[in-house]
Each structure stands twice: as C-alpha cells, then as structure tokens.
Amino acid sequence: FEIQEAQIKPGEMLVIYTDGVTDARSADGVFFGEKRLLEMLNLPETSAGRLLERIEGSLSVHIGAASQFDDITMLALRRGLAE
After folding, report:
1. pLDDT score of 83 more than 80
2. Tens-place pLDDT, residues 19-31
C-alpha cells in the first residue's frame, strides 16, 4: 500500500470500494466493470448515502440471479459546504 494525502473541497465526495464492485458478474459472466462504475460516479449526487444506494441498486440488477463470489464493500464521504 502507498500512503497518500488528498484534500476534499466542500461539496466533493471521496468514494472507496473493493474490487468486488468492479468484478461483480452477471449471470452470463459480464463484469460490472470500472467504466460502468465511473459513469455512475460522474452523475450528479448531493448525498453520499444516495450515491451508494444508486450503485448498490445497479449492482443488484447487474448481478441478478448470479452468485456473488467476492465481497462488495463501498464507502463514500461527502464534505459539507462551508458556511
């Protein structure tokens, strides 16, 4: 692991996820993929919780009846706007 530092500006979000998110497969073996996740992350969202719910919903639809073979872990933090 490499230690890094980042500054999150007011209104920005930090999203952390395990490879189980991008490696999630549909019943026909198609990966959820990084491209699909990045497209979702680029959609506007004001709440970290709602963002995670949206991703989780999309993952559930994608996986469908397929077996989950890896952990799916996500964390999102949103810095509040300065007053």
Report:
1. no
2. 999 999 999 999 9
Token pair, residue 18, equals 């395990």
CB-facing half-sphere around the CA of 32: CA atoms within 13 A? 26
- Token pair belonging to 62: 């994608």
The pTM (predicted TM-score) of the whole model is: 0.86
Amino acid, res. 27: A
The Cα–Cα gap between 80 and 83 comes to 9
Residues 6+ apart with CB under 8 A from 2: none
Residues in Cβ contact with 38 at an 8 Å cutoff, skipping those fewer than 6 apart: none
